[in-house]
Design goal:
Layout (H helix, E strand, L loop, with lengths): L1 H38 L6 H21 L4 H25 L3 E8 L4 H9 L5 E7 L2 E11 L3 H11 L4 E7 L30
Antiparallel strand pairs: 1-3, 1-4, 2-3
Length: 199
Amino acid sequence: MIQTVESAEFFAMVVLPLLIFFFRICDVSLGTIRVIFIAKGLTYIAPVIGFFEVIIYLVAIGQVMNNLTNVALYIAYGAGFAAGTFIGMKVEEKLSIGTLVVRIITPEDPGDLVSYLRQRSFGVTVTGGEGSKGKVSIILSVIKRQNLDEVARGIREHLPKAFYSVEEVRAVAEGVFPAKRSSLFLLYKDPFKYFRKGK
């Protein structure tokens, strides 16, 4: 009898909080990824993620509601939410999904940078402008997110003092991009292309 009581207490104070923590990590991670996918135009896969997200959430909240006096569950619930948010952002970051526009403004000759980008098959548009200290060149390039490090490296090498900004692009039509690279698990690092609205 004593062993049974101890087992029940161990389950309530250790096993159940760990399960709640794990469930919250799963459902909040999925929720974070779902919101990011919606923002990136992946409107067809987001409902599928939402389906699994809400089922896991209901299991977690159901256990909490059935054990309202167990303070450990509240702590596990909150900790799982925080950890799930962090993990969800990291997963989305690793997926490198989406399209970006890089805007570079420099008073220097942009020729070397433009050549660097075009040699790597990036589409580049160059125009002139007027800055606070005189004439400037404005370079625009729409790139895949996984190529941002390569482009930023080129900017640092060829125009280290240039101002540049990076913005998300919700949708693009046509454009010039480097050939997609194969990998061990994916044919290319945009596996959700066909789930995007309008694609």
